[in-house]
# Entry
Amino acid sequence: MYEILKKQNLAPSIKEFLISSPEIARKAQPGQFVVVRIDERGERIPLTIAEYERDKGTITIVIQEAGKSTYHLGRLDSGDTLSDVIGPLGRPTHMQDVGTVVCVGGGVGIPPIYPLARGLREIGNRVISIIGARTRELVIWEDKIASVSDEVHVTTDDGSYGRKGFVSNELQRLIEGGRELGLVFAVGPTLMMRAVSEVTRPYKIRTMVSLNPIMVDATGMCGVCRVSVGGETKFVCVDGPDFDAHQVDFNQLLSRQRIYIQEEKKALQRYNSLHKHGKLK
Ligand SMILES: Cc1cc2nc3c(=O)[nH]c(=O)nc-3n(C[C@H](O)[C@H](O)[C@H](O)COP(=O)(O)OP(=O)(O)OC[C@H]3O[C@@H](n4cnc5c(N)ncnc54)[C@H](O)[C@@H]3O)c2cc1C
Ligand code: FES
# Structure
């Protein structure tokens, strides 16, 4: 059992959990994730390790309520326990000193850039972070990102905070302003990562993305998380989650992310109905 030591509501439908997990905290590296099961009958939910504190034996995850399992998780509180937290999984992000790096985080993809930016800066890079969300209240972890960045740019789709537009527009602006960039790293919704990739492609700026396909076993056995990268099939859970953005077949990834959409809708409706009638534990 893994205890939730602290829960924070960061924004409507975005929750942060501090979880006691000394073994994972000891081994975690930037870019890795865990698989969480709420109880013994629960689905396996892959979630990025947004922070790890080895001395305290804790990890932090930030979730966006998207469907049945994440809504269920979002209703837990400090003092509750999770039946399984498995990890750290996936390959750690390759850290190298390339001069200037731009870390781009969108929505719930903002917290995962925190350990990346920190690690990349520690080895000598100048780190520019671009974070964005639909609207002001969904811009999360701005102070934490600022604490590990040399510059932070904020965008909102509706212009309620920071510059109006997408994170990819801000990146384009920086590049057109003459910034020499050694690497761009993007984490967020697949459409956002594809847009970032298209911005950097003409300039041949090395661009990495952290992919989030549907996963089931997260051990490389089931094949559900497969993506095409440079024409080769890769399993994101064991070969990734980081890949060269310019080689990723984003259209295939987007269509595979939608394959269970009807089942997901039904599962959420059933969960909400049980919750409404007080039939959930
Ligand atoms: C490596 C990785 C890291 C992730 N990190 C985070 C994170 O830090 N914070 C966060 O909020 N979300 C993260 N996700 C996405 C998160 O796992 C899904 O939102 C969650 O599993 C959805 O489950 P659900 O039952 O709530 O929703 P569902 O209704 O089942 O699905 C909602 C949407 O989530 C996606 N999804 C569904 N099942 C899975 C699954 N088993 N694996 C992956 N995606 C799925 C689908 O695209 C689907 O359309 C990550 C996914 C991966 C693969
Ligand atoms: S989730 Fe099964 S192979 Fe990756």
